[in-house]
Every structure is written in C-alpha cells, then in structure tokens.
Amino acid sequence: MMKWVVLLDGYLKGMRLHVIAIVSLMTLSMFIWIVTIGTLRYVFYDYKIVKTAEDDLYYTEAFLTDNDVLYLANGEATEVSKRIEALIDLPAIDHVYCVYTVNSVSYLDKAFSITLIDPKLLSDFPALKDLGIDFGDSEDGCILVGTYYDNVHGEIELGFNYPQPHMESFHVIHQIRSDYKRLSLNNASTNPLAEDLFTETYSDIIMLATPSNLDRFSRMAIVGKSTNYIIGMKHDATLEEKQEIIDSTKTIANMVSIKTIAENTKNEIFTAIKRQVPRPAFLLLATTVSFLSMAILFVKRKKVENAVSRLCGASRKRIAIIAMSAMAVVSILPALINSLIVLLIDRSRFSEILFPGKLYEINLSGLLLGTPAYLMIIVFFVLTAWISFMVVLYSGQNMSPAEYLDSCN
User: From the CB of residue 177, how many other CB atoms can be counted at a distance below 10 Å?
Assistant: First the structure.
C-alpha cells in the first residue's frame, strides 16, 4: 500500500498546484449543482402530491386576525372557522377538514408534536401513500418520521402533562426515514403554490384525526387547528353550485382549486429550471472540460518519465495503471468531499451526530438532498474516471520506448 502511495505521490510531483486547483473547482461546481437540483426537488416534492389529487378539491385560506390564529392554536374555534366548517351542510359539499396538531408532547425528555390528519386526506391525495403515509386498517396507530426514533419498535411511550404528568403508549405502524414534508395548511398566499400546503419537518408523529383520537388527545393535551382547510365538493355538483359557494365565502376565505395550485406550481418549476439550471450546468461542464485538459497535459508531461520507465523494464500495463490511479485520486477527492457534506447535512437534520445530547436541526428550508444527491456525485465521478481512462488509453500506451522518446521531441 505504501509503495503505491509513494508511486502516486511521485507521479503527481510538479502538478500539485494544478491538482489542488482542479479539485477545488470540481468540488465547488459539483456542490453548486447538488444544491441547485436540491432546491428544485424541494418544489417538485410538493407538486408530485398535488398533481395527483382528486378533482373538485379546494384549498380554503381563511381570513383571520392574529387573535383568531392564537385561538385556533389553542384548540378554540373562531367565527370564521365555524362558518367554514358549517359548509358541510350544503348539498354540493362532500367534506371539509383541517389538520390538527397535538402540542406539549414529550419523548425521551424532548418536546414534540403529533400531527392528526383526516382519513379523507389519503384518498384526496393518493401520492401520500407512495411517500409512506399509509395506516392500513389501523385507526389508532402512529407513523414515525425521522431517524430519531430508530430504536423504537412496536410501541412508543409518549409523555403528556394533563391532567397530570403521565405516559401513554401508542402502536407504531412503521417509520419514514426519508425526506418528508407534512401537510400543515397554515400558509396563505393570494396565488398559492403547492409548497404553501406543506411544512418541512425532520421529526414528526402522524396519526389519523378520528373522533376517538381527537377525544383522547383533547383530554390530555392542547389540540390546535390549522388556519386553513381542504374542502371537497361532490363530483356531481354543477359549475353554478361550485361558483356560488366560492362567491359566498369571499368575505371569510380565499378558495383556490387544488388543480389550479398544481398548474401554478408546474409553471413555477419550469420558470425555476430556466432561471437556476443554466449557470450551474455551464460551470459543471466547464469543470469537466478543465479536467479533460488537465488529464491531457498530465499525460503529456509524463511522457519522458514513462519512456524511462519503459527502458527500465516497466510494462505498458503498469504505467497505465499508475497514470489512471493518479488521475482517479484527482476525480475521487471532490466526490468524497461532497458526499461528506451531503451526509452531514442529512444526518444533522435527524440525529445527534453534531451535538450529542441534543435534537439538533439545521435550518435548510427549501433544500432536499438524500439519495439523488449521492447518485449525482457517483455519476460525476464515473464520468471523470472514464475521461481519465480514455486519455490514458489513447495517449500512446502502445508505443515502444523509442517511439515514446520521439513523441516527446
């Protein structure tokens, strides 16, 4: 092993500044590309969910005062929320629901919240099941989100403060360890996008908002409501009936169809791609060309040494292996550095790797990395390694020692 290290070090001698420069450039350009794709994935994540939503769904943004928001967070109804929920009595309305949040919950002495989603939500947004939100036949089980719960199996014990401090046991259906954004329905916009329906989270507990669960939690915790609602209209409702409901709620809420939100989000994604991708793509391409140029220069500068090595008895194969190994070191360093950065970012979201004893979270809102980031790093490494192989292959490895020397003149 040490022999190879000495050989590679000697082979790279005289090119170290070039190597440092190209490694730095490759690392930076790859990282910028990963971040760019990560931001686009963040937006596309939400779009994947809303684009497959059922027809006749409406995101209803309630017009609330600061006091109304405070009341809802404390589980108290407001005049606006009452009027929106009363829409269920209209003939054209099929269902109305919000998202509930159970506050003041603890696990291993750390504060958490529980998200309660309406059972109808899973049929309204079928893509959620593909992301792991599937309760099967269980109505009182829970789904854990994040690697913080890796040691939990079968049951989880959660702490509550009301009516007095005590522990409650819940059946664990399964765990979601990948990136996850929960439907929060708390963001408002005059022209809402898919991301306005979701909130990024790295540790969450999800349960169904069944009457039994709502009753159970209301007796031992504060159950807050989201400020906005999802309203589903009946499929056989006429356009006039739908428009009449939208017009009648204009004073208390802004109703936007989920299909409109999906279309707006798709346009936003295309705009983001046109705006964000070209420069990082050009930088990555320029870096690849720079690596190719360095590889060609590298091989040319080593022709005399290769000729001497051939005269001293080194085989063509051995010289080629040393050359490819030296350039592989150059191409693998950016891959390792970026992999480490992605690993630290992903792990710092979920675990205690950076700060033992604390549930530490880095604020990286707007960025999704995970497996696709590693795949891009691997593809870039394979591409640069292939370039190295082709340069060495066509650099005169089949020449005789005399021909090597002649080519150097």
Answer: 15
